[in-house]
Design brief:
By secondary structure, this protein is of the alpha+beta class. Helix content is 31%, strand content 28%. It has one domain.
């Protein structure tokens, strides 16, 4: 089952995914580390696996130009 959570670090958005998360054996998160941790804390009995290794949190300044705002 596939589901996209707009912001995994926001409990309001996580709550909207509760039914889907509860129906499955595990969660694969493609969010940053904060999103993975938020899901893991909220669903402590459910395995939550990170699907990526965040290098930094940044913003898109221009096409192909990213500005690093904090280290992950």
């Amino acid at each position: 089952e596939e589901l996209t959570i707009e912001r995994q670090c926001d409990n309001v958005f996580i709550e909207e995914a509760a039914d889907a998360i509860n129906r499955n054996d595990a969660v694969l998160s493609l969010g940053c580390g904060a999103g993975v941790q938020a899901l893991a804390e909220r669903y402590a009995k459910k395995p939550v696996y990170p699907g990526l290794n965040t290098s930094f949190i940044g913003i898109l300044e221009d096409r192909g130009i990213w500005a690093e705002k904090c280290a992950a």
